[in-house]
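Tutorial, part two.
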Amino acid sequence: MIEALVVVGWAAVVAFAMQVMGAISALVDVAGVRDADEPDAVTRTRLRELVWAFAVLAVVAVFIAFGVDWAARLVWDRGEPFAGAGVLVLTATAAFVAGSIGVIVIARRERPTYARLRRDLRDRSPFTLKPEELADFDARLERADILTARRPRVDLAAMIVGLVLVLGAALVLAAVAVDSGSPLGWIVAAAVAIEVAAFVIALRARAVYRARLAVVLAAQRADVVALLERARIPQSARVPGLRDRVSRALAILREKQR
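Running the prediction step on this input gives:
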């Protein structure tokens, strides 16, 4: 029972710290929304996802440590090797799943963005785009539209899980404090108040950030569409000797002006 309380308490402390950091980073994100030529400056904000991934992996590591200790006690202290092996298999499975999720979150491919498309089209503007190149840009634009429509919910789910975990741990600690007459209840109440305030601030900042980001993305998409339409206009063929004739005409005009 005590070991379970220690594990839950540790997870709640980590979730509390990450919730406060998440609220601060959300406010920073709101202040930093602006259009830029750097494709990943605005449209790729995975900082909170990465931070929460590391936090979840840290909590899972604590659970794994307790799982290994529990399996060892079942084998050596109680003489139950099959039960210990079962606990060990479950612990290893949890570690594998958590590690796989962490690798997917950290090492996944970058998403196509309007800013990246705009930069690539501007780089190709001096050249005539081939039909297959235009088709590739159209496919990338369609993919960017799909991914933009999918609002990321990973950070929101992590915030809700953290809030529930902290509230559950607070109830347990409050009950223990009431039974023992300890002043721990006031500390728990203050922590819960800070946790709820951080959750509300992060949620509100997240909504403001999404609204401002939508304006930036709409402007970037309009630029991409305009560049694609310009690239579809057929370039007029060069006339042999046209530059020489224009130069002679300009020279004659300058002579007449003198």
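Residues 2-44+110-257 form one domain. In part three we will examine how such features are distributed along the chain.
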